[in-house]
């Protein structure tokens, strides 16, 4: 099923290559398949082009954390907290901060 979703998202991306939502969705599909390297590239590319896409900070940090790159995960959570705070997105800010605190306290 994920392969079908990936194909469909890629098709949409051909029509709208700069669509941040589609890039984020594709990265999440890759995570579901255990293809973290592909997901990481997509998240990093997305955030380089669209740094205000707050949701990707959380998922990229979780991916980094899962892969044992704790320092990079902490940095990504911290950056996401700052972006969310600047955007006035309290919900995302709190979610990122809680994940960061959990990782640091672990």
Q: List the helices and strands in order.
A: HHHHHH
Oligomer: single chain
Biggest pleated sheet: none
Query: So what's the CATH class?
Result: Mainly Alpha
What is the end-to-end distance?
35 Å
CATH architecture: Alpha Horseshoe
Overall structural class, as computed from helix and strand content, comes to mainly alpha
CATH fold-level topology: Serine Threonine Protein Phosphatase 5, Tetratricopeptide repeat
Helical fraction equals over 70%
Total tally of structural domains: 1
Strand content: under 5%
Overall description:
The radius of gyration is 14 Å and the shape is globular. The protein is built from 6 helices and no strands. Helices cover 82% and strands 0% of the residues. Helix 1 runs antiparallel to helix 2, helix 2 runs antiparallel to helix 3 and helix 5 packs antiparallel against helix 6. The chain has a single domain, classed as Serine Threonine Protein Phosphatase 5, Tetratricopeptide repeat (Alpha Horseshoe), CATH 1.25.40.10.
